Fold these 4 entries.
Entry 1:
Amino acid sequence: MLNNLEDKSSLGPNMAVALITTLYGSMMANWLITPFATKLLAHNAQEMRSKEMIIEGVLAIQAGENPRIMAQKLLTYLDPVSRKAIEADVLKD
């Protein structure tokens, strides 16, 4: 926009284009990119938690831990609602 300041007649249209592209960029960032990034971060956190749980379980099996202790350790990776639903089945006896 500021490349050619000698031509005063092209300054207005160039300014309009600059403002419109800024507006479109801001709208796209706030309406599309940010929600998409937030959803990707949530999925990434869930996947990382699952993989950490798998690694912890494999290491516990390899170490020969007691299955009840291992089950209690792995239940700590779950959120409270899921933990309550699964805890009765896992820790029965």
Entry 2:
Amino acid sequence: MASRHLSRSIVLQSLYEWDFYDKKPVLKNIVERNIKDFGPGLEEVDFVWQLIEGIGKHMPEIDKIIEKAAPEWPIAQISMVDRNVLRIGLYELLYANKEEVPPKVAINEAIELAKTFSGQTSGKFVNGVLGTVYKQLEEKQ
């Protein structure tokens, strides 16, 4: 598994656990444990922290964007896996360095995470939400 894909998987697993326990445990502790358990020898540990810190910083805005892009799905009704995949994808799509992670890579990576960790239709759902946001971004340029 490529280093960045593994990093995103660790971020997803960490956000999922944090979300599952109503955001009560310290996210930093969860991430540290998951890096140790799932990413021994991971080359780009900084990328994990970059994603975690960025998503944490922008989560209120990201969640509002999810609600606008999927109005028939209130954020609380989206499965925890899909919600956190969308948070990762939207963070990379909106706030990450576009030269480091081009928009289409961000979308494809999120779709792959959804296909791997969630239900049968999750890939299509994630693609639909991220695709909608991406089209809106292109229209603004």
Entry 3:
Amino acid sequence: MKQVEKISEGSNYTAINIGCLDELINHSLTHPKTGQEIKGKVFLKEPTKATGTEISFTTLPPQTELSYFHFHNKDEETYIILKGAGYYQVDDDCFPIAEGSVIRVAPQGIRGLCNTSDVPMIYICIQSKVNSLEEHTSDDGKRIETTAKWIGL
């Protein structure tokens, strides 16, 4: 099975590579609660040493569905569909999704999805504690002058 590759690391960052998205199906993990092997999924919190989010990439084969519905106690999730099409269900609402769809779900929302297309569905899921974002975008940043190291490479 494919492994996450560390590209570089310093005191303020960790850079990794999960590989080509078309080869995402080659990643595999063991679900910590069920012990079930899950193919085509890679979590990024541990390899990137993230402290505020869990991000995962998942591939769902053509004409299949996620094998379970779930909810969270404290974390909201944002799903970004990169490839494929199908349906997403939150509670009793079911709606079509496709490449470019973005779905944010509150912790208590019971969620699941299916891929009705003839290509693998690839999506990113970003999970973070609900109401934890105090400052965002330019409110949380400060521009500085520095020299770009890629110049001349």
Entry 4:
Amino acid sequence: MAEVKKIAVLPGDGIGPEVVAEAEKVLKKVEELFGHKFELAHGIFGGIAIDQTGSPLPQATLDICKDADAVLLGAVGGPKWDNNPKETRPETGLLGIRKELGLFSNIRPAVIFDCLKEASTLKPEVLEGTDLIVVRELTGGSYFGEKFRRETAENGTEAVDTCVYNVKEIERIAHQGFQIAQKRRKKLASVDKANVMETSRLWRETVNRLAPQYPDVELEHILVDNCAMQLLRRPSSFDVIVTENMFGDILSDEAAMLTGSIGMLASASLGEGSFGLYEPVHGSAPDIAGQGISNPIATILSVALMFKLSFNYAEAGESIERAVKEVLDAGHRTGDIAVDKSQAIGTTAMGDLIIAAIRK
């Protein structure tokens, strides 16, 4: 009898419920084709949770996640909650769930589909061969450091965000970057700002100390501002990029746009074991929520990542990825990746086409 994998499903806000609904259909199709068994438990998270419970991460939702083998997340946030105090902002829920579940790294692949080169703002010849992964540290840095405001007599209110990293945090994310590179093209770009920041100098020293453990990996140190420029100038030269929290947040979104749409890219947040949280890179897109026009591909590809990284269901994961490529090669597009917007299809139609294309 097939092992039952428990998946916590957190649709979230905005277009989150729409794209997650298509991913759930994919799970059902995989059950039918491959014999895998999934048990889904739904929870509220983000803005909708604030409205219903006063907290972006209710204890009941956290309990569902801790009882699961993996988490599938849609998207959180929106202008409705932008002016809330820090404790009742959707983004606080995201930081909290990463910390509570021990998720210290975010894996974001950026792969160019040949048939979508025209959707990118970069020239096709610049994009040729681009296939990279950004490995972002998730639980340290200025996002988690002490934050406060103080009054000064001369300049009025002053705000402080503290950026803190320790050796253990840097070591575990660097090891992951090296290990991922070993399984790919054996090139690792470690991104920092060591010419200015003390945390970056510790980062670089630590990465250099670990490098001899991975003699087969070519290590490059690159300053974050230069990396941002090179991602636009020579994206195909990158294999794996490893970096701290804020730099990774910015660079992974830039890498996502190389593909033509942030709606195309999956991500995984991982800890020490096989448990992971999987979500599309895009946000909640409240301006198009409820219109049925959002792109479900990133969420569907997040399921494929889940199968590969948490469940060891490589065949099922690859079948999903092939189905997405087949549908795109056939010319089907949602509005965000369509050159001719009049020919764009909706969320459900795209999901149905991909589900129909999944096969063993």
